[in-house]
Amino acid sequence: MSLSMYQASIPPLVRGLTILSAVLKKGEAHAPTLVDARLAPDMLTLVGQVQRASDTSKGCGARLAGVDAPSMDDTEKTFDDLYARIAKTVDFLQSLKREQIDGTEAKRITIKTRDNTIELAGQAYLLNFALPNFYFHVTTAYDILRHSGVPLTKLDYLGDWKSA
Fold first, then answer.
1. Termini Cα distance of the chain
2. What is the CATH number of domain 5-158?
């Protein structure tokens, strides 16, 4: 049996967001002020990384399913705000049905950036753009916390991989 577009998108995105929430909880326990931490002056803060992970995942699900993604105002300032955003994103992703996403391998996906409009087939969009972008922001959030002294390990990032 081959891996479907739904299986390759929604469960990994939900899992990544769930792990992100768990990593944030360890960060909050270590230092509640880390929401404004960043790795470099030209990079987004922890809040910004979580917002982009949320945006990327909900945008991916919405584009593949052909529905509108929920609007979120990027007003998060606390860990509780970040948990709420992640939960709202997970709820949206879990509302998408397998039949909305399966079969979208060749569907044309259009992404508007500041400078361009990019058009990709659904599978290329998922595998070459959405998932790498999502994991970049999840990893960077992890790295900000780790760099700030939060006692995280690789197993925190991997989550419960034995039952995944």
1. 18
2. 1.20.120.450
